[in-house]
Specification:
The chain contains 19 helices and no strands. By secondary structure, the protein is mainly alpha-helical. The longest helix is centred in the last third of the chain and has 32 residues.
């Protein structure tokens, strides 16, 4: 159990016993922020690493005299190993909840034996089929075990194997292959939601996005991939505001961080001349413009809907300004893609510079007011990076460069001072 969840569960019991909240409210709060049933990710990671190493040892032991064994003995060893390790895992889980990590380890070895068995059986019968199919069968087997147990670790293995299957089909065989992305999206992400696992949610999101973009990057123009990535970023940020009041509130951080990172990198690229040129549309490419406008239209509808949905929440000036900046970014992208030629984009560069700088300042202000040092640090780092990026572009005079560095240094010192004052004031009021 994490320290935060442990503390919250303890406080909920105290509030109920002291009469601060009723029992029904306490139960609802406890269900929204559930305990992790004593599961430690550190122990689980060590168990997984140990299981993988042990499984490799078993496979190498089989391989030592593999050629000298008769076919029946080979098949017997494969199926006994597969069934035996999964039975050991089931026995440990039934016997005691305290042996949950040991059970996960045995099931993980069993999944490794399943994958090894697929390739070894293909070797025994000299099967020379389409090799990604073997990876697909292995990944589907891991996914079925992930749902049956249920197991986050098995879900991670399944997401990785299905991704390898998709990458193999796309890269090695140049196939348009959305099946792998659909399998991760509909098979792994719901499991992450039900198990309330931020790790599995993040891996599933990254795998789905990577598979979709790799498909698009091979079969369509790269500029469509860039705008599709931007649209995905806006959708993820919007969803992060909606899921806050669900049974998986911790998903907010995963969705928002993933979306913000993609959005931030996209806007940062547009602060350069090459970014403006690369994200502009070639003359006469009407179909490309229609597709990109469709993507930007989706981003606009989703974001406006989120803003209207957010009107029900408590109004915050800085948050509303950040929402407005994202909408302004979408509108500027409409203007950028409406250009008929790839002229120098210096005016637009300056606008995107200003948007990113204001984002950073608002992030610093919100982080200082709410005493969230990660927001303050992120805002300072991105702002400093933006200044250094413009060092050679906009400031040719050594005097101007020195003034910029003095201003940036003084601002960072001032931010640190204001954060310390805000922290002391909050502690004194408490």
């Amino acid at each position: 159990m994490s320290s935060k969840t442990d503390w919250l569960q303890s406080e909920i019991k105290t509030w109920v016993s002291e009469g601060l909240i009723d029992r029904t409210t306490g139960q609802l709060l406890a269900e929204r922020y559930p305990a992790a049933s004593g599961k430690s990710w550190g122990v689980s990671l060590l168990t997984a690493i140990g299981a993988i190493i042990f499984g490799l040892g078993v496979i190498l032991f089989f391989a030592y005299n593999w050629d000298d064994l008769p076919k029946f003995a080979k098949l017997t060893m494969i199926f006994l190993s597969l069934i035996g390790f999964h039975l050991l895992g089931w026995y440990c889980s039934v016997r005691s909840l305290e042996q949950r990590n040991l059970s996960e380890g045995f099931h993980l070895i069993g999944t490794m034996m399943f994958g090894a068995g697929i390739f070894l059986i293909a070797q025994i019968y000299h099967l020379n089929e389409h090799y990604p199919v073997a990876i697909l069968v292995w990944g589907v087997g891991a996914l079925l075990f992930a749902w049956a147990l249920p197991s986050v670790i098995q879900g991670i293995i399944a997401a990785c194997l299905i991704s390898v299957w998709g990458f193999s089909e796309i890269i090695d065989f140049s196939n348009l292959h959305f099946y792998s992305a659909a399998l991760v999206f509909f098979g792994v992400l719901p499991l992450a939601w039900l198990q309330r696992s931020t790790v599995l949610l993040f891996i599933g999101l990254v795998a789905t996005i990577a598979l979709l973009l790799l498909n698009a990057g091979i079969h369509v123009d790269e500029i469509i991939v860039f705008y599709a990535l931007f649209t995905i970023a806006v959708i993820l940020i919007a969803i992060s505001y909606v899921v806050r009041n669900t049974r998986f509130p911790r998903s907010v951080d995963v969705l928002r961080v993933t979306g913000v990172v993609i959005y931030g990198l996209f806007v940062f690229a547009l602060t350069f001349d090459w970014g403006i040129l690369d994200f502009s549309i070639k003359d006469g490419d009407t179909l490309e413009r229609i597709v990109i406008w469709g993507l930007l239209g989706i981003a606009t509808v989703v974001w406006v809907g989120m803003c209207l949905f957010g009107l029900k929440a408590k109004f915050e000036v800085t948050k509303s300004m950040q929402h407005g900046l994202i909408l302004l970014t979408v509108l500027l992208l409409f203007a950028l893609t409406a250009q008929s030629t790839r002229n120098s984009g210096l005016p637009l560069n300056l606008l995107f510079d200003a948007i990113l700088a204001v984002h950073c300042i608002l992030l610093i202000i919100r982080g200082t007011d709410n005493l969230k040092w990660k927001q303050v640090a992120l805002g300072c780092v991105v702002l400093a990076t933006l200044v250094f990026a413009r060092f050679n572009d906009l400031f040719e005079s050594l005097l101007m460069r020195s003034l910029v560095f003095l201003l940036l240094g003084a601002m960072l010192f001032f931010i640190g001072h204001m954060y310390s004052r805000s922290k002391l004031r909050k502690h004194s009021n408490a």
